[in-house]
Design brief:
The chain starts with a strand and ends with a helix. Helix 8 packs across helix 13 and helix 10 (about 325-330) crosses helix 11 (about 370-395). It has helices at about 50-65, 110-125, 135-145, 150-155, 165-170, 180-185, 200-205, 245-250, 310-320, 325-330, 370-395, 415-425, 435-450, 475-490, 495-500; strands at about 5-10, 15-20, 25-35, 45, 75-80, 85-90, 100, 160, 180, 190, 195, 215, 220-225, 235-240, 260-265, 265-275, 285-290, 295-305, 340-345, 360-365, 405, 430, 465-470. It is α+β, with helices and mostly antiparallel strands. A hairpin with a 2-residue loop joins strand 17 and strand 18. The longest helix has 27 residues, at about 370-395.
């Protein structure tokens, strides 16, 4: 009977199940979207119950597509969207509130206060900057604002964590409550060098240690699915990792200086720093990439809040496109944007700017500006943001790169990938499997159950689909970047300025 490995990517806009066969080819894939909830401007939430249902639906779909028995699945690996976090009742499993999404800015002012008082300690201990992006301020808000949450926590009736912790807890029927260092390092509560919760940070944030999960290796058999939650099977749950870092591993970026970018709702670039913690002087954050056999690997992280989410905005809010696939042909139908630049700072600007109060802006509009030019400018904005992070990566790491490996849904857009190569001035390589997040999670789960001998074996699984070579002249590249940076400066500090 053939063996299969399951990778689950719990992302910002949906959950993807990836079923992989013994040859490590994708046998089946299914994405199930979930709602984006916007209670107030700058607030973003997800319904955890809907996400749990989406995961179950996605997994059931890939099993049906390949027409296999659930018992043929050897291991399950889960990657998650990172900083998004929630609280739930330990006894009933019911969420006390919607999950607060990484894009949510409701704690921005509190994060400013933390930065003023404890900014140096936060950076030196956690590798992060004080920002509403990270989970710690969100969990503090939930404890302080959800009725009865503090009291439940004090009575030992409350659990809190990122979505990996919740989904694994659900899969195992409440028997396993864990997270891994890659995810914990995005909470602003983990001591980066020790790989454990930092007591001073917990005190600063007023978050009880008792409600948080154990931090364990990214690849290990944590426990087994409860039969009623997984098609009657007790299957090993054996990998837990942040989404873009799972993709970094799947891309084979195992050596110091290796770099990659994952495109999704946001855009996330990482450069491998090896086993040593290094801090950035230019706006990058330092995180744990993964931990295997007790050995942690670190990386610089350059995050872009809004990438694919800008395309989704065109579809769902402006309704100028019916689906994201259309944008490729539309962008190619015009020679340029007509001088239009779109800075999609819907939730502020992340690295290297770290401006919580920046807001989205389309500038350069004239009476002749067309729908097609705005759509093209939206795609170009993704590539420009990636360029900005790449330059800081080079500066802070001391490593140049000759190629950028990429993955994620938007990499199927040939216009975007060609423009990305043009703006970076280096080749861009797209793998055969674009869903590298779930692929990396599946690999780590298989490693834990003995299907592979070491992390290095992941390099044998990687296959190139297409390589994009830069075609833009240096003069044009410099002009376009100069105009982009002019636009970025104009959108900064907008919300705060508007409140005065």
């Amino acid at each position: 009977m053939r063996k299969y490995f399951l990778g689950v990517d719990q992302g910002t806009t949906g959950t993807t199940a990836l079923l992989i066969n013994e040859e490590w080819n994708v046998a089946a894939v299914k994405n199930v979207e979930h709602c984006q909830i916007f209670p107030k401007p700058g607030w973003v939430e997800h319904d955890p119950i809907e996400i749990w249902a989406a995961m179950q639906s996605a997994v059931a779909s890939v099993i049906a597509q390949e027409q296999i028995r659930p018992s043929q699945i050897v291991s399950i690996g889960i990657d998650n969207q990172g900083e998004t976090c929630m609280i739930w009742d330990k006894n009933t499993g019911e969420p006390l509130h919607n999950a607060l999404v990484w894009q949510d800015r409701r704690t921005a002012e509190y994060a400013d206060e933390l930065g003023e008082k404890y900014g140096d300690y936060i950076r030196e201990t956690t590798g992060l900057t004080a920002d509403a992006y990270f989970s710690g301020t969100k969990l503090r808000w939930l404890l302080d604002n959800v009725e009865g949450a503090r009291e439940k926590a004090e009575r030992g009736e409350l659990l809190a964590g990122t979505l990996d912790s919740y989904l694994i807890w659900k899969l195992t029927g409440g028997e396993v409550f864990i997270t891994d260092p890659s995810t914990a390092s995005r909470t602003m509560m983990m001591n980066l060098k020790k790989g454990q919760w930092d007591e001073k940070m917990l005190d600063i944030l007023d978050i009880p240690r008792s409600i948080l999960p154990r931090i364990v290796d990214s690849s290990s058999v944590y426990g087994y699915t409860k039969p009623e939650n997984f098609f009657g099977q007790r299957t090993p749950v054996s990998a837990c990792i942040t989404d873009a870092l799972a993709a970094m591993l799947a891309q084979g970026c195992l050596d110091v200086g290796d770099i990659k970018t994952t495109y999704g709702t946001g855009c996330f670039m990482y450069i491998n720093l090896g086993h040593e913690v290094k801090l950035s002087n230019n706006g990058l954050i330092s995180v744990c990439s993964w931990s295997v056999d007790g050995e942690r690997t670190y990386a610089y992280d350059g995050g872009v809040y809004i990438a694919g989410a800008a395309i989704q905005w065109l579809r769902d809010k402006l309704r100028v496109i019916e689906n994201s696939a259309q944008t490729e042909a539309i962008a190619k139908s015009v020679e340029d944007t007509g001088g239009v630049y779109f800075v999609p700072a819907f939730s502020g600007l992340a690295a290297p700017h770290w401006d919580q109060y920046a807001r989205g802006m389309i500038i350069g509009i004239t009476g002749g500006t067309t729908r097609e030019q705005i759509i093209r400018a939206t795609l170009e904005s993704i590539a420009f943001q990636v360029y900005d992070n790449a330059q800081v990566m080079k500066l802070d790491s001391g490593h140049d790169f000759s190629v950028m490996k990429v993955d994620g849904g938007p990499t199927v857009n040939s216009f975007l990938m060609q423009f990305q190569a043009d703006i970076l001035g280096c080749p861009v390589e797209v793998p055969v499997v674009t869903e590298m997040t779930a692929y990396g999670a599946a690999f780590l789960s298989a490693l834990a159950v003995g299907e592979f001998g070491s992390v290095a074996d992941v390099k044998d699984c990687w296959k190139l689909q297409r390589r994009y070579e830069p075609q833009m002249s240096a003069q044009e590249r410099e002009f376009r970047l100069e105009e982009w940076h002019r636009a970025v400066e104009r959108c900064k500090n907008w919300e705060r300025a508007g409140r005065r």
